[in-house]
Amino acid sequence: MMTPQGCGSKFDPLSDQEKELIAWLTLFHTPRLGPRTANKLLERFTSAAEVIEYRHEISSKTLRDALAQPNQHAIENDLSWLAKNNHHHIIHFADPDYPSLLKHTNDPPLILYVNGDPTCLSLPQLGIVGSRNPSPTGLETAHDFALELSKCGLTINSGLALGIDAAAHTGALHADAQTIAVIGSGLDAIYPAKNSRLAHRISQQGAVISEFPPGSTPIAANFPRRNRIISGLSVGILVIEAAYRSGSLITARLAAEQGREVFAIPGSIQNPMVRGNHRLIREGACLVESTHDIVNELASLLGTLVIPPKPNENDASSSTNRPLMAFIDHDPVAIDTLISRSGLTAEHVSAMLSSLEIQGSIVALPGGRYCRS
To answer: In terms of Cα–Cα distance, which of 57, 56, 2 is closest to 24?
Structure first.
């Protein structure tokens, strides 16, 4: 990790650390030199500086010529961004702060741009992913799981998207824990812009990271690549409300290929937003009903987690202050059942139902039953 006082040609003289970073940035910004090709070269030449010094031994003339003419503008741009803020860091593949789990995946990025604390990238992490348009229950679940899992010793990472991602980051922040956001654009172009304030909070209490250099716009092709970093950093992935075909399932598939644990929360068969979850469970993902299921599964791998008590299904005292919407799903539910589940009085439940119906959040059905609209 390096935080120089100047940038580019202004380094005078260049330290070994600065020379090494510039060598890595040269590789990174070489046209048609992707991470896989670069990593093959590094297996042969051992360092970025050696790849450049002995480029005449590379069989591809196109690649030799490209390495002989570094993209100085891109390198200067990166170094200028690095020098702007003490929270800005550029971590290359050989950097001690490069996270080990990610390094040992099939397609690790050569460079990680970090706004925040780079050391948190090596903490035991759980990725939480899901719909950008979740139900109220999905949002609450993401927030509460992230909060409780953070207290158990897991660092939550996600993709800073609207919906489940943002709720997971917020839950971790509410636990006064670090959280990591992996984005599909340059760190100077937070996407979605609506989450810019959340990104700032994360950078102060964790890290926002990207493999895309400053100035990169959030194009669609970036996000599947972003997903492999989310899974690559994590010991497991938790999927909350994912449609049958979604980016969340791509992340889960990548996690399985990387040998990570995959967890999925089931839901109503009437809810299209959990069909992806049910697909994952059929394919072998761990069915999750509480944070205990996740921590208990991962404790043997990590050894440092605090295992929460197993939930008592007969204890409704913890539910008395939860919003009534948490107990209403797409399946019709009777008012007596809602009274029993929530622990609230009949008068309180009736008043809340009337309010929710007026808001359009629920639909009243024959027989005194209700479901989400």
So the answer is: 2
Distances in Å between the Cα of 81 and the Cα atoms of 26, 32, 229, 340 are: 16, 24, 22, 57
Domains and CATH numbers, the chain: 8-84 (no CATH), 119-302 (3.40.50.450), 317-372 (1.10.10.10)
Neighbours of 105 (CB within 10 A): 18
pLDDT surpassing 60 at residue 202: yes
Interaxial angle between packed helices 291-302 and 136-151, expressed in degrees from 0 to 180 and rounded to the nearest 10? 30
Q: Is the CB of residue 199 less than 8 Å from the CB of residue 99?
A: no
CB atoms within 10 A of CB 84: 12
Nearest to 132 by CA among 161, 160, 156, 158: 161
Beta strands in 258-365 (DSSP E): 261-264, 286-287, 333-334, 362-365
CB 129 within 8 A of CB 156: no
**What's 13's DSSP letter?**
S
Is residue 328 within 8 Å of 372, Cβ to Cβ?
yes
* Element spanning 65, H or E: helix 61-68
Mean per-residue pLDDT of the chain? 88
- Looking at residue 304, its pLDDT comes to 62
Length reported for the chain: 373
Concatenated DSSP letters of 287-301: E-SSHHHHHHHHHHH
Q: How many C-alpha atoms does 364 have within 13 Å on its Cβ side?
A: 12
- Model confidence over 90-107: pLDDT tens digits? 999 999 999 999 999 988
How big is the CA angle at 171 (ends 229 and 91), to the nearest 5 degrees? 30
* Residue 29: Cβ-neighbour burial (10 angstroms; 0-12, 13-18, 19+): buried
- The answer to whether 31 touches 103, Cβ cutoff 8 Å, is no
* Whole-number Å distance between alpha carbons of 137 and 290: 14
Rounded distance, CA 179 to CA 188, Å?
Answer: 19
Task: Give the pLDDT score at 248.
Answer: 95
